[in-house]
Recover the amino acids of this structure.
DNA sequence: CTCAGTGCAAACCGTTTGCAGAACG
DNA sequence: CGTTCTGCAAACGGTTTGCACTGAG
């Protein structure tokens, strides 16, 4: 968790975006930004709401959604969907702005890693498919170390032998 | 689009899965499987429903959802979420069962490619994080050749200069 | 002052579920 | 014949929206 001293400039950056867009810098917008910038975790809207409540801020969900939309537009925050049925938000002002995610199928934990190989992959699809990459998403799902040590297994419930297809 | 001759064995494979699980092979389940296996596209539930309707089958959405759930469980079909607000389904009986996706931000088109580099990436996260990969998802978003030639541009609406953060 | 933002509650929309009647095995 | 499925419609849950009121500039 960052300390307040590091968060302030990030919130101010969001303020600058709002000013550039001619939008008011409201107390609610600053509070939401403050919460998002104060952690390196991937927060859900519910978690953001609870975090605000804990610090005495009572801000409606609609406002949180609307502010997150602005934060995502400003490119200061990234929206993720890890298949949980809701979105998560992560600020992009970390030392490693572009990174990929490891997601544990057992505990739902998220870890980050970088994958320089993707530059080459993007170059190849550009060459071979004439595709112009703008952004990507790489997620590896599996079992984290702790869950493996706790004996977790990846369930397999498919056909007993799916091969012999062709 | 595959021809009927190639689809039948796939549908039968699904039948085998149902039998293994002690579940009835109903006419509706076969019809849904038939539609999914008869194309290499990434179908939405609405598209599946319409396709069924075109061939005279009138099957409720609930049944389609329930059948897709079985198809995904059997591992014969993969579920995708390309961020459109709904899911898409793709059968896994193509010559290239594991592949990644290119998604055009302009026209929404989807192309497939393979990325052998990911084996190495998975090996590295296993070594460095003790993570045991089960499956992954790599999607590259950008502009396809056609949309580029039509003059499409990737919109940038973020801060005019987001750097100078640290 | 004026225009946009906020909060509430209702609307939305893809998906899931409960239940009476229909089919599979 | 019993168990599971199907279809309908209602419920669900995250997200969005309409509207009267509040607040920023």
């Amino acid at each position: 968790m960052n300390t307040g001293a590091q968060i302030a400039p990030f919130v101010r950056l969001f303020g600058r975006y709002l000013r550039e867009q001619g939008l008011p810098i409201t107390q609610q917008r600053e509070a939401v930004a403050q919460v998002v910038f104060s952690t390196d975790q991937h927060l859900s809207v519910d978690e953001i709401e609870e975090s605000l409540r804990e610090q005495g801020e009572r801000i409606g969900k609609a406002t949180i959604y609307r502010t997150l939309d602005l934060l995502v537009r400003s490119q200061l925050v990234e929206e993720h969907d890890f298949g949980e049925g809701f979105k998560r938000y992560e600020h992009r002002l970390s030392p490693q702005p572009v990174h990929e995610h490891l997601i544990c199928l057992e505990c739902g934990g998220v870890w980050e890693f970088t994958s320089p190989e993707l530059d080459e992959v993007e170059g190849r699809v550009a060459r071979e498919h004439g595709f112009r990459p703008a952004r990507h998403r790489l997620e590896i799902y599996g079992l984290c170390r702790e869950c493996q040590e706790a004996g977790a297994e990846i369930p397999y419930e498919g056909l007993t032998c799916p091969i012999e297809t062709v």
Remarks:
- Chain B touches chain A through 53 residues (CB under 8 Å).
- DSSP finds six helices and six strands in chain B.
- The helical segments of chain B are 4-20, 27-37, 45-54, 61-73, 117-129, 145-149.
- Residues 23-24, 26, 28-29, 59-63, 66, 85 of chain B lie near DNA strand D (CB under 10 Å from a C1').
